[in-house]
Amino acid sequence: MSVASKVRAVMKKVGYLTKDGHMQGAGNYRYLSAEKAVGELQPAFTAEGLVIMPVGMEIVETREDTTKSGNVMHNVRIRVVYRLIDADEQKDSQPQEIMAFGEGSDTGDKALAKAMTNAYKYALLQTCMISSGDDPDHTASQEATASETHSRALPAQSDSLRCEWPDCGKPIKATATFSLEKIVELSRKKCDGHVLCFDHRRDYQAGERWEATCEQCEKTFGPTVKAGEKTYLLSEWIAKCSAELGGVFCAACVVELKKKAAA
Q1: Which residues, including other chains, have CB under 8 Å from residue 233's CB and lie 6 or more apart?
Q2: How far apart are CA 169 and CA 22, in angstroms?
Q3: What pLDDT was estimated at residue 169?
Q4: pLDDT tens per residue across span 155-173
């Protein structure tokens, strides 16, 4: 039996599903929960020897909305590819791939998890042609209109925004929690106006810098310093110079100062 034939068998067992959830507030609508959809379909999938699993996920867009109460609502839209597999491994049964989109919103860090749940639910419902009555997305759209949020949409990544740390240049990307605009804002706030990638923001906040000015020749140097056979991070070099010479100097001036001190 092919995967399609097994899906048809599932469709015969599970048809119309009534809505079990109730969203109160703006919009005030009922919906079919992912918990119920999975709970109703899992026994039928198991009986037919069907397995569904995610094999790929891409963040399509991130966005921030400001609610009436002033909270920041994090939104993420994703594209997920699921694979339907015949667990019985029959010869005429080939795995089938399903693409689904999901969107999640949360004022905390659960936007991506909600988007994954949303995508999973609709992948199951659309694959098995499960109906729950009227279209919940229509009501959700009305709710979004009524909420009067201020949207600041940005792409998940911009090639024009790259880490300013020398020899890095990584593109600055949105995350499931923060939009591109918010990441740039936080980076400039915490890193003295610089736009840095996650790793170098952490380095900068830990005291690492990519350039310093020599107190003798007034030339700038960094983010690493080669002295003899050893290469130092700038922070290591500054600590070494301060301990040995009482100041910050480039490698050439350190050699010169040590020669003078030894003479």
Answers
A1: 208, 223, 224
A2: 47
A3: 81
A4: 555 556 888 887 778 888 8
User: What is the C-alpha separation between 70 and 48, in angstroms, rounded?
Assistant: 49
In terms of domains, do 147 and 163 share one?
no
- Say if residue 65 is in the same domain as residue 25: yes
Exposed (0-12), middle (13-18) or buried (19+): which is 239, by Cβ within 10 Å?
middle
pTM (2 d.p.): 0.51
Q: Cα-Cα-Cα-Cα dihedral of 199, 104, 4, 8, to 10°? A: 160
- Contacts of 178 by beta carbon, 8 Å cutoff, 6+ apart: 62, 64, 74, 186
> Which residue stretches of 128-197 are H helix?
136-146, 180-190
Same domain assignment for residues 189 and 97: no
CA distance 80 to 125: 15
Residue 88 has pLDDT above 60, yes or no: yes
Average the pLDDT over 144-160 and give the result.
Answer: 46
**How do 230-233 and 224-227 pair as beta strands?**
antiparallel
Do residues 136 and 18 touch, judged by C-beta distance below 8 A? no
Instruction: Give me the pLDDT at residue 92, please.
Output: 64
3-class DSSP assignment, residue 252: helix
* Structural domain for 186, as ranges: 156-205
219 membership: H or E segment, kind and range: none
Please state the domain count of the chain: 3
Query: Which among 218, 196, 219 has a CA at the least distance from the CA of 209?
Result: 196
**Residues 72 and 164 occupy one common structural domain:** no
Same-domain pairing of 199 and 216: no
Same domain, 144 and 21: yes
